[in-house]
Amino acid sequence: MSKYAIIVDPLSTGQEYPAAFKEAGKIPVAVLSGTEPPPAFTGSWHPEEFEHIHYLTGSVAELAEELRQYEPEYLVPGAESGVELADALTEILLPGTGNVPELASARRDKWQMAQALAAAGVPRLRQFLTSDPAEAEKWLKENDLIGRRLVIKPPKSAAGDEVYVVFEDGDWRERFDRVLGRTNKMGLVNDAVLIQEYAEGTEYLVDSYSVDGKHALVDVCRYTKISRGDKIGIYHRIDFLAADDPEVLALWPYTQQVLDAVGIRIGCGHAEVMMTPDGPRLIEVAARPSGGGHQMVSELATGDNHIKRTVAHRVRGEFRDSFDLVQHLRGVFISAVRDGYFRNREVFDGIEQLKSFHWMKILHEEDAVVPETVDLFTCLAWVILIHSDAQTLDDDYRRVLEMEAAIVIDEA
What we know:
The structure is a single chain. By secondary structure, this protein is an alpha+beta fold. The protein folds into 3 domains: about 5-100, Rossmann fold (3-Layer(aba) Sandwich); about 125-195, 2-Layer Sandwich (Dna Ligase, domain 1); about 200-410, ATP-grasp fold, B domain (D-amino Acid Aminotransferase, Chain A, domain 1), CATH 3.30.470.20. The protein has helices at about 15-25, 60-65, 85-95, 110-120, 135-140, 170-180, 245-260, 295-300, 305-315, 390-405; strands spanning about 5-10, 25-30, 50-55, 75, 125-130, 150-155, 165, 195, 200-210, 215-230, 230-240, 265-275, 280-285, 330-335, 340, 355-360, 370, 380-385, 410. Helix 2 (about 60-65) packs across helix 3 (about 85-95). The model has no long low-confidence stretch (mean pLDDT about 90).
């Protein structure tokens, strides 16, 4: 049995893997998909956690040969940027043990994702990928979407980065031009633009863990997101649901079809699904742990999470077929409504006295210049509320919203 655990891009949530594998008796090995982390993940790169670090500087085959010295039994992706490389290395070093190699791009590229769903007969949103506005207009006309509400985004991004809504009769070309050619927070140039019909409904996060094509739930959350201008998908609140909740029972069969369609056979799955009047529709799916601090809240709500499931399976051969909701948890994402100086950090004084208060992190000091919140990367603060009584949770949540409404940000 190998004494090493190889983690591809141990960034974002993946930064939690080294300690978890060490605790299980394994030596973590870091593999970076570039010479440095993508811009969005720079702060989560902790090279001091590793005795051995490898970088993709040449071919994937050359990197695979470097890694053979560890006699690897598995490789795991830590962040979105490492998904494709982890798949490719697994197929070279441990052929037949990973996800379906022919569908690798469908686990990262949102257009290929939709194509895979179409090929598998899984219901999906209408969408189109192009770098040509004339092609885009032709497709919109053919699908009777001219003048309708649309979503425009890069095919490869994360955490709501550069996701825009075009309102009815809005100027979709302006948003198209805004995305095309820009370098996103994954460090990738948007060489094409994804145009998608707007999905009305309630959005859910569905986390899973798979072994040999058998899928199991890790947690399910109901999202509340807000819009500001033409930016949509700004995270505002999450509520964890029980495995036997009717909402979960309606989502899970569809999500398993999605996982099969994109070829996820082993490891973490992270799906965002909209429950529309026509039934569930995929927003996107990823073959890695959920990010944005979700591992901490998942463990608080269920006693488990993606990181723990991965280590339990990879090191001890364990596989859980579902999850237990051990306590009701609501996460609140505090937004900054504009760029500027954050003047009144004290607005949150007394929040610790709320009956359901569990944890808070304010990401900026008093008088710091803060960015307008437009995605998960630019939240001003996070609050976690936990309580057995739903009414208490709701009352405290309203108090947090009052504090958020009183935030003062002066023009920079």
